[in-house]
Design brief:
The chain is built from nine helices and no strands. It is mostly helical. The chain has one domain: TorD-like (Orthogonal Bundle), CATH 1.10.3480. It starts with 13 loop residues before the first helix and ends with a helix. The N terminus is likely disordered.
Length: 196
Amino acid sequence: MLATPRTGPPLATAHDLAEYHAERERLYAAAVLLLDAAPDPRVLTAVRHLLRRDAAVVDPLKVALSDSRGARAGDAYARLFEGAHPAIKLRCHTARWATHDEAFTAAGVPLSPDVRAELRALAVLADRTAHALDDGDMSAAAALSDVQARFLRHHAGACVSELAMDLIQSGEPFYLALGGTLAEQIAEDLRLLASD
């Protein structure tokens, strides 16, 4: 079962917005950790700690991290991502737009067609936005939000959504939870950040 997007009160204050972006940063950073290599117990524990206080959107992933699905994630990783013909390729299949390069430059992430780089860029941009809001720098927060909105609308939204669907369709319980969580977060980001 997938969690529903944010249903609580509207994001009304700078603190609310900063916390929202901080939660996004933690989820995208956790996804990078879980996709960089076969997760071992140390990585699973780090991700559990990273996500321990976040919104309902990450609940299915937190459950998967805590039960036997997490313990079997390493074997599933090998089946899905390794070998000469991996079941899931961690490359973006969408065309690069100028917004892709703009987002990577703003995040300080090296340009790459790898979806993990897209997630890293989203994490860094979300973190910088949260810090700008916490520091009261609304101009910087607005500029970073604009970069994220264009990036999500023109590239990362499609790229990460495609990965999420591949993870869901894999049938591997742990990666199904990760895919569902990413799909929910991207949908929420597109609704809140990238709506026209």
